[in-house]
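Design a sequence for this backbone.
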């Protein structure tokens, strides 16, 4: 999460009108605007892998998957989840702001991990429709799924190292191989100028 761009408190309508004129994406939390941190390459790969796998499996169902560029509203706050699935008829008719996701997934990075685990999850838990919250760390390959029980509380299921990630709320399974496909094929980072690689 970046630094607040304004200290002037806005309404969600004010924010939406303002952001429509911006080239970059921003989140709106507690009346303040925050610039989105640029995503790393591995973040984009994992987000796309997950969205593609879910889209294929949800074909023919009343659920749809959305990724990165769609806004999610929680009370007066507006977020951009990395990936989310909604089965709500109202959401499937909206053009801009979604309100009733069944599953939300965030791909972690060093700059956003605390935000995704903390403030964002706190906000997301207020969504009555939300059944599962999936956190994926592309660096460590750790996968953690928080699933809402009959008592309304979320329970952690650590799926790190397992062959499949099962999202019960939408009836989908994604293999770890598919989720992290392409990461092992990435070329190594070039050494900084003037720095020789180890021999």
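Sequence:
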């Amino acid at each position: 999460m970046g630094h607040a761009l304004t200290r002037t408190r806005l309404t969600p309508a004010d924010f939406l009108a303002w952001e429509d004129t911006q080239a970059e994406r921003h989140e709106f939390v507690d009346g303040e605007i925050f610039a989105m941190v640029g995503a790393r390459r591995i973040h984009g790969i994992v987000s796309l892998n997950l969205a593609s796998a879910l889209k294929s499996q949800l074909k023919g169902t009343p659920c749809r998957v959305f990724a990165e560029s769609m806004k999610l509203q929680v009370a007066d706050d507006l977020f951009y989840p990395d990936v989310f699935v909604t089965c709500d008829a109202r959401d499937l008719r909206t053009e801009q702001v979604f309100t009733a996701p069944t599953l939300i997934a965030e791909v972690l990075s060093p700059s956003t991990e605390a935000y995704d685990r903390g403030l964002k999850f706190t906000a997301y838990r207020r969504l009555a429709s939300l059944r599962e919250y999936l956190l994926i760390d592309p660096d460590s390959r750790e996968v953690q799924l928080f699933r809402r029980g009959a008592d309304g509380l979320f329970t952690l299921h650590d799926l790190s190292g397992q062959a499949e990630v099962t999202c019960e709320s939408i009836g989908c399974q994604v293999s770890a191989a598919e989720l992290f496909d392409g990461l092992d094929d990435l070329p190594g980072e070039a050494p900084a100028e003037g720095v020789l690689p180890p021999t």
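Residues 14 and 31 are 10 Å apart (CA to CA).
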